[in-house]
Each structure stands twice: as structure tokens, then as C-alpha cells.
Design brief:
alpha+beta, 34 helices, globular, Inositol hexakisphosphate and diphosphoinositol-pentakisphosphate kinase, VIP1_N
Length: 1076
């Protein structure tokens, strides 16, 4: 190919790069970083030769003498002779990545919007003002102080003014109007000057100066009249811009950044590069990206997306654009372009992507990948005619710090006044303190009350305990030197109150005189927890999608991967979800923006035990009776083959003896920590009571996956915990585990003792606490029996409790499977209809059906303004999802029709136990008597021996479709169940000190998945639904989908001003109905 290389098997495909050097230069580099990264990757395949034209050739040489190439990359920029390039393309007939003639459209925003509307792509409500001469008066244009009107279409302030010339008219204005400046903060008033008419000048095309890309000009009060303009309704987006980059009609990469509209500032990293964050496109948005690519016939194309009130709109199309600083994108773009070139010029060559990309052959394997081990549940084994359709995973959070609670009764006046301050002055109302301001007030009050160590002569035991608890509260509030609000919260509950004379002497009022303070803290995701979650995500990426290899990332960026991630409300669970997503999608950067952009919170589905609280109290009472009495009552169905059927199955036979030993060892460890804490407490006595101790920064801890070496080397506890808090933790355990006065054990403390043992063995082994190893072994024996039985003392009670806790989650899982099945059947029917058409009519029919359906969809979108119907997360309403996101020509997959739905649910230990109990005991329900269970006998034995479902334990449900089975056949869809018990604590049991991950990383490896079914078992979807439906929330009981906060939450504070602008304007809503 190229010169004399047209015959099969000779030469390389030549790729011409015909672009202006100033557009692609980057310092001394000949081409910009993204261009060079992608072209170097294409060249690495060994099939292509890259020809760079250069400015001299493009501008000075006749196009007839330009280099001859098979494929041409050419796009317009200032000074580029587009017509000359068109003539060259007509003469040489190369394959065009971006067609040249449609690029003229991109210079005129009017034509861009016309083309978008022609293809049914949603755009903001807009109107055109066309002037043939500067300052021409137009009878259809009216400007008032509060609005403009074009052809009777009224736009209330705020509205947007854009020049129609997309190339030379660079400035977009946003006109604002405020009525209540006193509602805004000082920072916001710096942006909006005293409520006067203000507009923002926003440079959309040129690079900003420093970090600024917009300015405010309060002196200009009227719209521009020297040219033609587009006027748009201002759409609040939560302060973010979404940028979408296509590479062909089946691939789209999306990123978000803080919108410069908010404050004119673009966020940049220390290297000066603009900070952008990952975005998951909805099915509708993926369809819009495909249509933009097709409408403008630009394979490589960037455009701006607005997300507002649950709907999405395209507001600008930029043409040729590459993503910056994303190696995943560079890999994907090179693979997609390679496939385009081969299909266009060498269809006889295989375009299948090799398992290892050429430029990654010599890359070392990440050492952390050993953290996840391969289990016996062989991932990827499936029939040749089967296609993976759905992956549902329920995952426990990663390694965390121990959860703590401090309770004390307070009578101090300043604490009672603080309670009244934040509960509206109501003496009998509980107050919750969580914000930074509230916690700072509490810290200030507590500091005044904490006695100095060694000061005071009152030795009453209760007073000493009260002072110690106040000191603990102070230490917790000062921990880390800042308030994050995510792992510390305080409740103040009034206990006693009296009537006192009002201050004005007119009558009486109630006044609290005693309250209960409850401080909850801890339970924070550790550096090890983040590492575990990120590595498990990477493991899923490489192993959970059979036949993909590295192609999962391409699967995700094409329109065939429907991914949604849900989390409970707990901070450790949310951060685990973000870290997993980072590993799964090979993302870069910090976890917080990943969390707010990709993870949806659903506390009603993934939090709480209230629905089963009565049954759990009964189970714990029975459990206490069995342990303390030493007598175990077996269930009538229990046999040597099924020991799990007994009441209290898994409890050690010598539990009473172990319990006494547990108390003794706990006291020994507590005494050792007390000595360490005493030294720290004496050091604190030398500091000012108002000093803020800064032992550790929790925010920085969440931003890295390595331990704090300096703290370890200094002999301090790992993480943010000091010796004082460590002692408080152990002292509380020793006190609550056994009440010496009443001579009574509290078995509910056993899991907490085990939790603390495991944490200190993993993270604080360098403190060399004696007896901690032995205590861990004793606590583990007891915890392995206690924890599973807290969720039911026998299988039937486990099933009852599990169904109450996981009812909503089970219902959602069935909805996921049902939606996937309906979509797969729909696609199969379409394909069958096309196969039955004559070859000449197939493409036309498919295209006609596609356009017809898309047109209907677009009309529906225009008719619907309901947030619930057009929410960002629409997976619960299958009818609203776009069906045409298939045809993955550019990904390495088995068949082009394949579409995969992935749902990830991150939760706590309670929901993992509950879900597992329903899955393995569902056949014990009276309505399912005689049915075979979902879990094999071998797996039941394994689960009985496993007992603990540790950090990152997970249950995986995968659904496959057998495309060779009739559509109505129940065997069309097969379910595969696997599970992992999470972190492998056997390393702690051995404690040989030789494992590097323990000594250097404080991280336990994650066990690989195990099968819950026999290899020969064929579990159909129909059977799965039948067995789970009695315990699941019915689909009709689910509320309609709502718009999640999503990415906008990250910049919510800075975006509030623009949101308020829209809400303050009293006539804004009328503009939606009649345009006036």
C-alpha cells in the first residue's frame, strides 16, 4: 500500500496527517502529547506508516504534489486551507477519518444547531437574531430590563448570548439579574455586584490566562447588537461542564470539570493541567454521542454536554478533539482507529485486538495484583454459544478502623446551651452535631471542661470516669486537625428538665438540666481498605468479563456497557465503591471526585437493620443463652451431613471457657495500652489546652494507599489513632465485655473484641503487644460462631431476618435481571427479523427502524420535562432506555450484538450476611417446599466452614444468554452464582512475620470467587426468580427513579449562586409554558 503497495501482503498502510503545526505543536515537540501518544501506538502495531505533511507542504505546495496516502487525518483550524484539502481528497480518494465538507458547518453555530435538531439531538431552548449589518434594528427583537424576546419567544434572565460565528466570535455572555443580594455570602457577592445587572464574559475557544477563563463586566447593561447571535435559556448544571470525545460512532469518552461560569476559575493540578473527572454517560447520552458523530460525519469529535433537571443537551460541537492525559483513552483511540483503517483499506487483514497491546509487552505487572487470589469458581468458563449479559455484584466495604462510641451524661451549662443552640431552643428535643461548625463549637466547650491531668483533688470514681470521657471526646474531636463530618457525629439527648423563670420575668419556661451525649467515631476506610478495593476492581476488570481481556475498558466506553454503582450512606462504603471503580475502569486521580461522579447513594436499599430489629434481639438473646449455659439444642433437621441446621451452629463446644479466657486476655492487652497512653497523656499536660493536636491528616490518608512510615518508625499507632484513643477503645471493651458487679458476660461485645484484635495485629504489630496473638485466636473462635448467628440462630430464622434486611436489594436484583432479559430478547428479535429480510433490504430496514425509533425517542424527550422520567439513572424503567447502543465494531468482543449490564452494590456486613442467607436457605420457605435450593451441598459445607464474611467479601451473579436456544425456552438464560469471603485472615492466624503485604503494606489479600453451584448445574433465570421472589420487594413497590446529585455535588458550594439566580426569578417557570 502507499506507493506500489496495493497488492495483498505488500507494504504498509500509509496514514497522512494533514493539520496545521501550530494546532498540534507542544513546546519542542512536533505534535501535541495526545496526537503523538495515539500515532505512536498506531505505528506500534506494525501495519502503518505515518506521513506528516507540515505547514510548508500544506500552505505552499500544490495539492497535486502532496504525499499520497491511504488514510487521511485532516481537520480545520485557523489558517488551514480546507477547500484545498477537499480537492486533495477528491483527487486521491483516501479514507477520511473526519470528512472535510461537513467541517464547514462547525464554523456557524446556527448550522450546528440545525444539524443537531435534524438528527433529533436535544439542544437548549434557543432563538436566532440574524443581522445583515451591524446594529441593524429588527422588529422581531425586543430587549427589556428583565428579558429579551425574539419572534415572540421570551428569555428571562439569566440567559446566554452566543455569537453565531463559532470560529471568530469567541465570547459568550451570560446575563444575570438579582433581587436579594443579602441572601448571598461575601464570596458570592464578589461575583455578583450588589444585585445590579451583571454578565459574564466567557472565552470558550481560547486558552484562559492562568486559571481564569471568564470575567465579570458589570458596566455593560445591554446585549450586543453589532452582529448575529444565538440566545439560549440558561440551564443550571450544578457547576460542571461535561466534555464528550468520540472515536467513531460506537466509542465515547466523557469527562467533567468545574465550570468556569461559576467563578471564572479553572481548577488545575500542580503541573498546571486542567483537572477533569470521569463521567458515566447514560444510555440516552451515549446515543446522543453516536448521533453527533454520525450527524457531522466526524469520527473523532468533541462536544459539550449540559446536564440539567434530569435531562441532557448538546450545546456545542467542536470537531476534532482528543482527551488529554488519559493513557486508557490513548490505548482505546489507537485500537479504534486501527480497526477503522484496516476495515477501510485492508479488510483481508484481521482487526482483532491482540491480548497484549504491542506497547505494553514489556510493561511490568503491577505488584499489588497478587492481593486478589484465584478461587475455584473458574471465571470465564461458559458455552461457545453463550454470551455474558449481566454482572451483579454485592460487595462489603474494605478494611476500616474499629467503630467506636462514647456515652456520658452531661450537666454542664455550656454543653446544655450548645444543645439548645442547635435544636431551636427546644428543651426536650434531641440535637445532632455533624458539621464542621457544630463540632468546633462542641470542641471549644469541651476544652473548657476537661480537667488538666493531675489537677484537682476530687477522687470520686464517677467524677474521674466523667473527666476521662470528656478527655476522650476532646481527643476524638481534635483527631486529624480538621472536621470531615464523615466519621464523627454527636447526639445530645435531653434526659431531665425543670421549669425556670423566663429572663424577662413573664412566666416560666422549661430548661434542660441533664442530657446524654453520644459520640460515634471511627469506622474509617484505611489505606489498606482502599488498596483492597482498588485491586479487586482491577481483578474484576481482567477476569469477570470472559473473552474481553483488556477490552473491558473498550467495552465500557462503547455503547454496550451499562454500568451503575450504588453505595450505602456510610463513608467507608462510599470510598470503597470509589476505589473499586478506579481499579475497574483504570481511572486516575483522587477518590473524592470519582465518588461524587460515579457512585449513587441508596441508604434505603443498602443501609439499616430496623426492619429485622425484633428478630435480631431474639436471636441474640437465644445466642447468649446457648453460650453462657454451655448447652446446645439442635434442630430436628440437623444431621452430621447438615450441621448448619442446628441452633447456634458453628459455636465452639467450649464457649464458656473461651469466654472467660477472652476476658482475662482483654484485660492484659488493655493494661499494656494504658501504660503507653499514660506517657502520651503526661506529654499532653505540657501543652496549652487550646492547642490543636495534629497527629494525622485523614484526608491525606484517603488519598494514598501506603502506610505512614514516619508514624510507624516513631513507634506510634498506625493511622489517625493516638495512644489515648487506643486505650479508650480497649478499656471500653474490657469494661463492657464482663460486668464484674453483676458477674455477667455481654456476648455482643465479642465481635468488637475480635475487630480490635484483628486491626491491631494488622496495623499495630510494631507495638509488640503481648498476648495479642493469643487473644486474637480466642476471639476468632468465638466470633466465628457469634457473628453468623446474630442474623438468625438457625436457617429458618436466618432466612426470615435476611429477607427483611435485604428485601429491597433482592427486589432491585430481580429488576436488573428482568431488564437485561427483556433487552436481550428485544435485540434477538430485531436480529431475527433482519436475518429474514433479503440482503438488499437488511441495511435499509435496520436503518429505517433505527431512525424511526430514535425519532420517537427524541419526541418523547421533548414532550417530557419530568425529572423522574428523564432521570440520570433510568435503569428501573426499561422502557426509557435506548435500545440502539449495540453494533460494537471497534471492540474486541465475541459477537457485535453483545451488551453487558453491570450493577455494583456496596454495603456493610449485615447485608452481605442477609443476602447470602436468603440465597442458601430460600428453599426452606413454606411456599417453596420440595424445591431444590440455589446452592449445592458442597457449597453449603464450604459456607458452614467459612463463617466470617470479611472485608471486601462479595457475591457475584452473572447471567448468560444461550443464543442457540429458542427465545421462549427457559434455558435461554443461565445464572451463575459465585462468592468470596473477602480478606484472607489466615495470614494473621499463622503470624509467621514473613508476608511482605502484612509487614510493608498492612494489607490482607482478597480470596478469589468460589462456586455456589456444581459445575454440571444449569440454573435458569426462571428458577432464580421463582426462588428469590417471595423475599424480594415487588417491582411495583419501588418509587420512581429520581435524579441523583451525581457529579454536581462536588462543586455544589461554588455553584449555588447560579442555582439561586434561576430560583429567585419569579417568572422563570412561565417561560417553559408559553415562552412569555
Amino acid at each position: 500500500m502507499g506507493e506500489g503497495g496495493g497488492e495483498e501482503g505488500y507494504g504498509k498502510i500509509t496514514v497522512g496527517v494533514c493539520v496545521m503545526e501550530k494546532k498540534v505543536k507542544c513546546g519542542s515537540e512536533a505534535f501535541s502529547a495526545p496526537m503523538r501518544q495515539i500515532l505512536d501506538r498506531i505505528k506500534a502495531f506494525g501495519e502503518f506508516e505515518i506521513l506528516y505533511f507540515g505547514d510548508k507542504v500544506i500552505l505552499e505546495d500544490p495539492m497535486e504534489s502532496w504525499p499520497v496516502c491511504d488514510c487521511l487525518i485532516a481537520f480545520y483550524s485557523s489558517g488551514f486551507p480546507l477547500e484545498k484539502a477537499e480537492a486533495y481528497a477528491d483527487l486521491r480518494k483516501p479514507f477520511l477519518v473526519n470528512e472535510l465538507e461537513p467541517q464547514h458547518l462547525l464554523h456557524d453555530r446556527r448550522k450546528v444547531y440545525e444539524r443537531l435538531k435534524m438528527f433529533g439531538i436535544s439542544v437548549p431552548r434557543y432563538a436566532l437574531v440574524n443581522r445583515e449589518a451591524p446594529y441593524q434594528e429588527l422588529d422581531y427583537f425586543i430587549e427589556d430590563e428583565d428579558y429579551i424576546e425574539v419572534h415572540g419567544n421570551r428569555f428571562w434572565k439569566p440567559f446566554v448570548e452566543k455569537p453565531v460565528d463559532g470560529e471568530f466570535g469567541l465570547y459568550t455572555f451570560i446575563f444575570l439579574h438579582l433581587f436579594a443580594p443579602n441572601q448571598y455570602s461575601e464570596c458570592e457577592l464578589n461575583m455578583v455586584l450588589c444585585g445590579i445587572l451583571v454578565y459574564i464574559k466567557l472565552d470558550l475557544r481560547c486558552k484562559g490566562v492562568g486559571n481564569r477563563s471568564s470575567e465579570f463586566h458589570p458596566e455593560v447593561r445591554r446585549v450586543r447588537r453589532e452582529g448575529s447571535y444565538i440566545y439560549e435559556e440558561f440551564m443550571p448544571t450544578g457547576g460542571t461542564d461535561v466534555k464528550v470525545y468520540t472515536v467513531g460512532p460506537e466509542y465515547a469518552h466523557a469527562e467533567a470539570r468545574k465550570s468556569p461560569v461559576v467563578d471564572g476559575v479553572v481548577m488545575r493540578n500542580p503541573d498546571g493541567k486542567e483537572i477533569r473527572y470521569p463521567v458515566l454517560l447514560t444510555p440516552n447520552e451515549k446515543q446522543m454521542a453516536r448521533e453527533v458523530c454520525i450527524a457531522f460525519r466526524q469520527a473523532v469529535c468533541g462536544f459539550d454536554l449540559l446536564r440539567s433537571e434530569g435531562r441532557s443537551y448538546v450545546c456545542d460541537v467542536n470537531g476534532w478533539s482528543f482527551v488529554k492525559n488519559s493513557y486508557k483513552y490513548y490505548d482505546d483511540a489507537a485500537c479504534v482507529l486501527r480497526k477503522m483503517f484496516l476495515e477501510a483499506k485492508a479488510p483481508h487483514l484481521s482487526s482483532v485486538i491482540p491480548p497484549t497491546l504491542p506497547w505494553k509487552v514489556n510493561e511490568p505487572t503491577l505488584p499489588s495484583e497478587r492481593l486478589t487470589r484465584q478461587g475455584s469458581g473458574v471465571i470465564g468458563s461458559f458455552g461457545q454459544s453463550e454470551e455474558l449479559r449481566c454482572v451483579i455484584v454485592v460487595i462489603r466495604h474494605g478494611d476500616r478502623t474499629p467503630k467506636q462510641k462514647v456515652k456520658l451524661k452531661v450537666t454542664e451549662e455550656n454543653l446544655l446551651n450548645l444543645m439548645l443552640k442547635y435544636n431551636g431552643g427546644r428543651p426536650r428535643t434531641e440535637t445532632k452535631l455533624k458539621s464542621a461548625v457544630e463540632l468546633q463549637d462542641l470542641l471549644d466547650a469541651t476544652r473548657m471542661l476537661v480537667p488538666r491531668p493531675g489537677v484537682g483533688s476530687d477522687n470520686e470514681a464517677e467524677d474521674l470516669e466523667h473527666a476521662e470521657k470528656l478527655r476522650q471526646v476532646k481527643a476524638v474531636l481534635e483527631e486529624g486537625g480538621h472536621f470531615s463530618g464523615i466519621y464523627r457525629k454527636v447526639q445530645l439527648k435531653p434526659l431531665k428538665w425543670v421549669k425556670v423563670q423566663k429572663s424577662n420575668g413573664e412566666g416560666e419556661e422549661e430548661r434542660p438540666v441533664e442530657a446524654l451525649m453520644v459520640l460515634k467515631y471511627g469506622g474509617v476506610l484505611t489505606h489498606a481498605g482502599r488498596k483492597q478495593a482498588e485491586e479487586l476492581g482491577r481483578y474484576f476488570r481482567n477476569n469477570m468479563y470472559p473473552g474481553e481481556g483488556t477490552g473491558l475498558l473498550r467495552l465500557h466506553s462503547t455503547y454496550r456497557h451499562d454500568l451503575k454503582i450504588y453505595s450505602s450512606d456510610e463513608g467507608r462504603v462510599q470510598m470503597s465503591a470509589a476505589a473499586f471503580a478506579k481499579g475497574l475502569l483504570d481511572l486516575e486521580g483522587q477518590l473524592t471526585p470519582i465518588l461524587v461522579s460515579l457512585v449513587s447513594k441508596d441508604s434505603s436499599m443498602l443501609d439499616g437493620l430496623e426492619n429485622a430489629s425484633i428478630e435480631m434481639v431474639e436471636a441474640k438473646a437465644r445466642l447468649n443463652e446457648i453460650i453462657t449455659s454451655g448447652v446446645k439444642t439442635t434442630h430436628s433437621n440437623a444431621t452430621s451431613e447438615c450441621p448448619w441446621m442446628a441452633d447456634g451452629a458453628g459455636l465452639p463446644s467450649n464457649a464458656p471457657e473461651l469466654l472467660s479466657k477472652l476476658v482475662t486476655l482483654t484485660k492484659k492487652v488493655t493494661e499494656q495500652v494504658r501504660i503507653l497512653a499514660k506517657d502520651e497523656d503526661e506529654n499532653l499536660a505540657e501543652t496549652s489546652p487550646y492547642d490543636v493536636i495534629l497527629p494525622y491528616d485523614q484526608a491525606k490518608a484517603l488519598g494514598k494507599t501506603n502506610i505512614d512510615i514516619d508514624r510507624i518508625a516513631a513507634g506510634l499507632p498506625c493511622g489517625s489513632e493516638g495512644f489515648l484513643l487506643m486505650f479508650a477503645r480497649w478499656k471500653k471493651l474490657a469494661r463492657d465485655l464482663y460486668n464484674e458487679r453483676k458477674e455477667r458476660f455481654d456476648i455482643t461485645q465479642i465481635p468488637d473484641v475480635y475487630d480490635s484484635c484483628k486491626y491491631d495485629l494488622l496495623h499495630n504489630a510494631h507495638l509488640n503487644l503481648e498476648d495479642l496473638n493469643e487473644l486474637f485466636k480466642v476471639a476468632q473462635l468465638l466470633a466465628d460462631g457469634v457473628i453468623p448467628n446474630e442474623y438468625g440462630i438457625n436457617p429458618k430464622q436466618k432466612l426470615k431476618i435476611g429477607s427483611k434486611i435485604a428485601r429491597r436489594l433482592l427486589g432491585k436484583i430481580l429488576i436488573d435481571l428482568r431488564n437485561t432479559r427483556e433487552e436481550a430478547l428485544h435485540v434477538a428479535e430485531l436480529k431475527s427479523n433482519q436475518d429474514n429480510c433479503p440482503n438488499s433490504a437488511k441495511a435499509a430496514n435496520a436503518n429505517r427502524e433505527f431512525q424511526q425509533n430514535f425519532s420517537i425517542k427524541a419526541d418523547d424527550m421533548r414532550r417530557s420535562h419530568s425529572t423522574s422520567e428523564m432521570s440520570i439513572d433510568q435503569d428501573d424503567n426499561d422502557n426509557t432506555e435506548t435500545k440502539y447502543r449495540l453494533d460494537p465494531k471497534y471492540a474486541n468482543v465475541m459477537t457485535p450484538e453483545r451488551h453487558v449490564r453491570t450493577r455494583l452494590y456496596f454495603t456493610s456486613e449485615s447485608h452481605i450476611h442477609s443476602l447470602m442467607n436468603v440465597i442458601r436457605y430460600c428453599n426452606l420457605d413454606e411456599s417453596l417446599q420440595g424445591e431444590d435450593g440455589l446452592v449445592s451441598q458442597h457449597a453449603l459445607q464450604h459456607l458452614y466452614k467459612t463463617k466470617e464474611l470479611d472485608y471486601m467479601s462479595h457475591i457475584v451473579i452473572r447471567m448468560f444468554e444461550n443464543t442457540e436456544v429458542a427465545l421462549e425456552d427457559p434455558r435461554r438464560f443461565r445464572i451463575e452464582l459465585t462468592f468470596s469471603n473477602g480478606a484472607d485472615s489466615s495470614l494473621l492466624e499463622r503470624n509467621d512475620g514473613n508476608d511482605a503485604s502484612l509487614k510493608q503494606e498492612h494489607t490482607l489479600p482478597i480470596m478469589g470467587p468460589e462456586r455456589l453451584q456444581d459445575v454440571a448445574c444449569y440454573l435458569t433465570l426462571e428458577k432464580m426468580e421463582k426462588m428469590i421472589r417471595p423475599f424480594a420487594m415487588p417491582a411495583e413497590d419501588f418509587p420512581p427513579a429520581s435524579t441523583p446529585a451525581g457529579f454536581s455535588g462536588y462543586f455544589l458550594r461554588s455553584a449555588l449562586v447560579l442555582e439561586r439566580l434561576v430560583n429567585l426569578w419569579p417568572f422563570h417557570k412561565n417561560a417553559h409554558t408559553n415562552g412569555k
